[in-house]
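User: Let's play a game. I give you a shape written as tokens, and you guess the letters that built it. Ready? Here's round one.
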């Protein structure tokens, strides 16, 4: 259904952009990619918000934008709220990052308490984002229905892994949730992992297939400014079985990327 979609980045909302940036650069070995900081407030329809303004760094690994990235985002309007999910709560649970230094491996938390697993490997960068599932079988069926494919291997103890429909180095990992959670969808400005973004070539065609399958979208496709020197992006969001958010971004044309 998602055809050529590849995981582009995992969005991590933070309370202090400088402190979180220092953590992901220093402890996790990422580097600066692009800063997105729109000049003013925009309608927040795509995120289920009244308005939206942020300051963010997209942090990349050794393969640059061909690999996975962390979209480290500090909300300015509205302000950040809440906390990352606790261990075992349904929804996005942690990110897995490959690092070259084997002595630096293991579980850590970022300044806001987001769980990060560091594993030895190359190229350095994001390799997996995991979801804690209230109903593991239902979640796997949902993502397989989108076109995700079973993948071999064991990434930092995650034994159920799915590759994105279009392949790529970043996978989705699945664990069973150990607590029920409150069942309330997390707002877009909540601290922690809020969405995982996939690139698609034709957003309108993909949206048509999602709607035909009965998958509800947070909005119609929206175009938003990303800030000075960065192309405007067109995208849409929808929720998975545990209220985790999947974002589909239309790949910029070669003209836009110049």
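Assistant: Ready! My guess for every position:
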């Amino acid at each position: 259904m998602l055809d050529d979609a590849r995981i582009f980045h995992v969005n991590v909302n933070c309370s202090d952009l400088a402190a979180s940036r220092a953590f992901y650069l220093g402890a996790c070995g990422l580097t600066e990619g692009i800063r997105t900081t729109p000049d003013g407030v925009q309608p927040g329809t795509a995120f289920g918000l009244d308005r939206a303004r942020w300051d963010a760094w997209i942090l990349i690994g050794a393969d640059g934008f061909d690999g996975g990235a962390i979209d480290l985002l500090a909300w300015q309007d509205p302000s950040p709220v809440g906390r990352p999910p606790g261990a075992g709560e349904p929804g996005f649970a942690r990110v897995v990052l490959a690092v070259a230094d084997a002595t630096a491996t293991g579980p850590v938390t970022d300044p806001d308490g987001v769980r990060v697993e560091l594993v030895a490997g190359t190229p350095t960068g994001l390799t997996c984002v995991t979801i804690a599932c209230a109903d593991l079988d239902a979640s796997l069926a949902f993502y397989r229905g989108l076109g995700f494919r079973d993948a071999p291997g064991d990434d930092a103890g995650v034994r159920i892994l799915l590759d994105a429909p279009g392949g790529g180095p970043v996978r989705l990992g699945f664990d069973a949730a150990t607590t029920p959670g409150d069942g309330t969808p997390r707002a877009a400005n909540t601290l922690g992992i809020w969405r995982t973004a996939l690139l698609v070539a034709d957003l309108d065609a993909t949206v048509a297939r999602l709607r035909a399958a009965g998958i509800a979208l947070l909005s119609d496709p929206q175009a938003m400014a990303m800030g000075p020197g960065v192309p405007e992006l067109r995208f849409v969001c929808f929720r998975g079985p545990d209220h985790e958010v999947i974002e589909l971004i239309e790949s910029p044309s070669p003209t836009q990327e110049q």
